[in-house]
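Can't paste images in this forum, so I'm doing it all in text. The chain is below; anyone willing to post the predicted structure tokens underneath?
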Amino acid sequence: MKPFFKTLKEGRKNGSIANVFITGVLPITLDDLASGFTIADFLTLNPDFECMLGFTQSEVDQLLDDIYHDYEIDPGSRKEVGTVIKNHYNGYHFVDPSGEALYNSTILMFFLKWFLLKKEIPENLTDLNLRTDLSWVKRITGKNPEKTKEVIQKLNIGNLIPYDKDTLISKFNMSQFLTKFFPISFFI
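Text version of the structure:
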């Protein structure tokens, strides 16, 4: 990965690369001098970019309008489809809990792909391959049974896991990641 990040840095220096948007990069990578990736900003919790993490209601409405028009789907099901989508995929808040709720883009696209092909609401409203695997929870909790149990309980009962925003935004090292749990990506 180091040569890749060095190429990006060089491109920024000489002007051949104006901007780069990379998803799935933890602040650990941003802080690791050996990675060659030391010129980045962690945008996940920046309120100016929150809407990039999903679809807004107006975007979903436009998508549905376009789909019904372009694929000549009977508009009689439009209200039901809109309700199902809103009930199952809307409600994500990443920065401002009082701001506009976002639709989960991954599972919404799963739904829409099925809907386009079959012209019906999918039987499984979430791609079964996208479910959070318990082994992943164990991995990010350091295989500590107590932490794993705590995370699962918080997810099942409260549907959220509190996190320290200041620490998450700041650069932190791998030992901090393993001792202090930052699972905000569960809901992204």
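The radius of gyration is 20 Å. The longest helix spans residues 57-70.
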